[in-house]
Amino acid sequence: MIPPSFDYHAPDNLEEASRLLLANPEAKLLAGGHSLIPMMRFRLAEPAALVDLRKIPGLSGIREEGGSLCIGAMTRESELEKSDLVQSRYPLLADTTRVIADPVVRNLATVGGNVAHADPGNDHPATMLAYGASFVASGPSGQRTIAASDFFTGPFSTCLEDGEILTEIRVPEAGPGSGGAYQKFERKVGDYAVAAVAVQVQLDGGRIAGAGVALTNVGLTAIQAGAAEAALVGSDGGDAALDAAAQAAAAAADPTDDHRGSADYKRAVVRVLTHRAASSALARAREAS
Ligand SMILES: Cc1cc2nc3c(=O)[nH]c(=O)nc-3n(C[C@H](O)[C@H](O)[C@H](O)COP(=O)(O)OP(=O)(O)OC[C@H]3O[C@@H](n4cnc5c(N)ncnc54)[C@H](O)[C@@H]3O)c2cc1C
Fold first, then answer.
1. Atom 10 in ligand 1: which residue has the minimum CA distance?
2. For a Cys-Cys bond, which of 29, 126, 158, 169 suits 216, CB 3.0-4.6 Å?
3. Do the Cβ atoms of 248 and 227 come closer than 8 Å?
4. CATH number attached to the domain at 62-172
5. What whole-number percentage of the chain has pLDDT above 70?
6. Which residue has a Cα nearest atom 3 of ligand 1?
7. Beta carbon of 14 within 6 Å of any ligand 1 atom
């Protein structure tokens, strides 16, 4: 279907982009367009104007700085895939980007768009929750940093305010003894998840000193599974702890019956994927010790 007509703006700075958003309450930001344009074509979104971010310099790139891996919001999935830094030091992020859609989509889709779209089926929100990442937003009242745990307020909704633009994602810098993994079960390659699980762990002297566990597509937003994290922290990462974490993650899931399976089935998938992701995260953390 052809989308209804809309105005198009391509500002070359953030202030102008923010001003355009405030002046047009029905406007939407355009990043890679791989969620927004399909929604417009199905007439699920009918923005009166698009504010294209692609001409604004400085919004993409991947670097370590000030104790964080800083990812510009306009960084494309394919750039994460090609980044030696991400591939060698951030296995949870590397796992995640590899299973998002297909190479054609990944060439255009941006990390910021994936997070800001807040689709419960998108893969980055759970990964960012498991990392304990934060998001930098720029808007009419300046810049602020938002914890991932505060960012997702509902399906397709975030705490970004009118005129605010996500500019950067900050993942805590990988240190010795840290490791993570993303396990996704999909009906076919390139599909959204039936369910997926992100696990990040920090080892200290053979025990788990910190853990992040979060779930994709089994609730209205990505879900941080606090009880699963608690089951891991303080343990030696043995089978009993992994089983307890897997049970807790399944209990935290809140799926519905749909064409991807029944709610009971999805909870069972979460249990299995949590065990696998935790086991892989631990192996990687031990390797990085
Ligand atoms: C066939 C297909 C399969 C897919 N499969 C998957 C999958 O398996 N897993 C997955 O995670 N995703 C999947 N996607 C979604 C894809 O990864 C999206 O592109 C991505 O989620 C959104 O990024 P984008 O840059 O395309 O954003 P856009 O579509 O341009 O924007 C999405 C939304 O975010 C807003 N937005 C964008 N950038 C910003 C910003 N910087 N600040 C504030 N708001 C912003 C926009 O206004 C819009 O509302 C799939 C898409 C397609 C077409």
1. 122
2. 126
3. yes
4. 3.30.465.10
5. 100
6. 101
7. no
